[in-house]
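Changelog entry: the EAL domain-containing protein record was regenerated in this release. Current contents:
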Amino acid sequence: MPLQQLVEYFNDRLEQQHNSRFRPFILQEGEVKGFFGSIQIGSRLLPIRDMNTAGRIIGYSAQLCVDSCLNHAEQQRKIEAAVTDVEPEHSSDSIINFDRLSRTVHMLNYLPKTHLDELLFLEVDPRHVLGVKADHGAYFEEVIIKCGLQTERVVITLPLGREYLHFYPLLLKGLQNYQKRGYRLAVRIMAYGADDKAMMTLISRAGPDFVKLSATLGDHQRNERALENLQKIKRLVDTVHGRSILIDVDDQHTADWVRLAGFELAQGRHVEKMATDPSQRQAVNGVVAQMKIGRAAAR
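Regenerated structure tokens:
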């Protein structure tokens, strides 16, 4: 189905659900955007590359972008203000509705790339997971099927921070509900250290397909334990047959951590530079060769 028809279909669906003239989606210069309250959101699809195969793209991580916002911090403030600008008793519904709308925007913007069999990584707000009591993923499964795809092409990504420590059992239940519907799972670790036993337990029990960590978590130049922590998480992910992704790899220093920590997958500005700049191809091939040597030596 053409993209414009899908936009109209989802507008019609929401109009009927809300019994109002609520038609949030528009197609503008080939890109789908959505309105939520006073903000207009779009998508930025960031390539995730396999460093074992000279930078082949295995999927795209969908990132929200808010029109008129100049930086990430301002964008986050506007999003939070939009989803919480309701009566307290309706805040959970507002978060769920925003999450669903933004994921629909990402899904529609991803469609032109679907012929390449690449995955779409979509973040779900932990408050959404906690706010939905059962059948996680059922609503979005209808969106995916209408777009002509299957849930196995979508990687539901849960950001995990220490502020949700006491909710891990409920979050685990939600993740397992997504798994039952065929979604792939990823966990994005917001902070890490040797004492994060609860987080490690959740990863062990959920068995995610991917675990993401940011190269900006901690000052690697001054923290001697940073590499040890990264390697510890990498070993844990290996035990559940998952794959580790180092994100925000934006310079040569953080690119070195991909190799040193043994991460197969990476995303960031420097990764793109290495993969697309012919003068940098040798650097990518060097990373691949060193990683293969490291794995051979570990056997």
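Residues 1-43+64-111 form one domain.
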